[in-house]
Design a protein that fits this description.
The protein is α/β, with parallel strands linked by helices. It folds into two domains: 44-136 and 265-333, D-Maltodextrin-Binding Protein, domain 2 (3-Layer(aba) Sandwich); 140-262, 3-Layer(aba) Sandwich (D-Maltodextrin-Binding Protein, domain 2). The protein has 13 helices and eleven strands. The protein has helices at residues 3-37, 55-71, 86-93, 107-116, 124-127, 152-161, 176-188, 200-208, 219-227, 259-262, 277-291, 294-302, 312-333, and strands spanning 44-48, 75-79, 101-106, 128-137, 140-143, 167-170, 193-196, 214-217, 232-236, 265-272, 306-307. The chain has a six-stranded mixed beta sheet with strand order 2-1-3-10-4-11, sandwiched between helices. A five-stranded mixed beta sheet has the order 7-6-8-5-9, with helices on both faces. Strand 1 (44-48), helix 2 and strand 2 (75-79) form a beta-alpha-beta unit. The longest helix has 35 residues, at 3-37. The chain is globular.
Length: 338
């Protein structure tokens, strides 16, 4: 073998070695990148800023179960009630934005609180990434049997005629139930008292016992007691009747067409701002598949809600559309909190 042939072989070996080495670096780099972007890499905490047993909590657990199966990681539902949803929502806003802390909440904490509270520890638009609205959340206008009314117009007239004598209940300060009750009190000049409870389970029991006269509550909590006559369901919010209570007309149908009763809240999933777009895209795709499960559909409609499943972009559009309506409702109701 000549010296030239030897040199050629050595050069070829060196080039192959360099290429192999480069390949190792490329592969290890790819693995490092995959490790960095691999989501989820540990259990996911799904924070619900309300008590266990409410409609939001029930949907969070239904979606959490489905997501866990699809993602191969446990989804731990973490109830953190307090201060009208502020405590739990703030925990998500301040969490590491790696997709391992998520939020399942109502429009009240994700949107309405910015108009209701003079100071918030989080900024709903800047600190929470919008993933998807999973359902609309219309509610039932429930009345104690002792109140002699059968529809919304009669309730408004009764409130007006009994100034200072009635109370309306809610499942928390700043909730839709609070705002709508305050709105009714204002437009009827009835000077009603607000009875705020820690969650819906307590609110429904207190309505049954007659501690207050009426309130806006979820169908899943109202229906069993309406069926037995312990409370009366006289109307529902929004423009469409509920699948689970088809005989109860909307307030809109009854001729009271104020935006305050036509607007509906929603239940949605959020994440800390800064979560990568890739994770949000993946998360939405999984949520969409989970929502198709008949058991999840049953949980949604059983609460009196309707599936929505907006994309992140649609969520932003809906959010912008709803903002002025909620702002006006808060202002008209005269509800402002520190």
């Amino acid at each position: 073998m000549s010296h030239n042939d030897l040199s050629m072989i050595q050069r070829r070996t060196l080039l192959q070695g360099a290429a192999a080495l480069a390949g190792v670096h490329l592969v290890s780099g790819a693995h490092a990148q995959a490790g960095k972007d691999h989501w989820p890499s540990k259990p996911i905490k799904l924070i619900v800023p309300y008590n266990a047993g409410g409609a939001t909590d029930i949907l969070a657990r239904a979606f959490g179960e489905g997501l866990s199966k699809r993602l191969g990681q446990p989804i731990i539902v973490d109830n953190r009630p307090g201060a009208s949803g502020i405590v739990g929502t703030d925990a998500v806003a301040k969490a590491v934005p790696d997709g391992h802390t998520l939020l399942m909440s109502l429009s009240s904490s994700m949107l309405v609180n910015q108009y209701l509270f003079t100071k918030l520890p989080y900024h709903p638009i800047k600190d929470i990434a919008l993933v998807s609205q999973v359902s609309t959340a219309p509610v039932v206008l429930a009345v104690h049997p002792s109140v002699p009314v059968k529809n919304m117009k009669e309730l408004l007239a009764y409130a007006k005629a009994n100034r200072g004598k009635l109370s309306y209940g809610s499942y928390g300060v700043g909730s839709y139930a609070h705002l709508a009750g305050a709105y009714i009190s204002k437009i009827t000049n009835s000077d009603m008292n607000h009875a705020a409870y820690k969650g819906e389970s307590q609110a429904i029991q207190e309505l049954i016992s007659g501690q207050y006269q009426f309130g806006f509550l979820s169908a899943q909590n109202v229906k069993p007691h309406a069926d037995t006559g312990r409370i009366k369901a006289i109307a529902v919010t929004g423009r469409q009747r509920m699948v689970v209570m088809p005989d109860v007309p909307t307030i809109y149908e009854q001729g009271v067409q104020d935006d305050a009763f036509s607007v509906v809240g929603w239940i949605a999933m959020g994440a800390p701002a800064g979560v990568s777009k890739d994770i949000i895209t993946q998360l939405y795709a999984h949520l969409l598949e989970v929502s198709k499960d008949p058991k999840v559909q049953e949980r949604i409609t059983g609460a009196g809600f309707a599936p929505l499943m907006s994309t992140p972009d649609q969520f932003r559009e809906n959010y912008q559309r709803d903002m002025p309506v909620w702002k006006a409702l808060v202002e008209t109701a005269g509800a402002k909190l520190d």
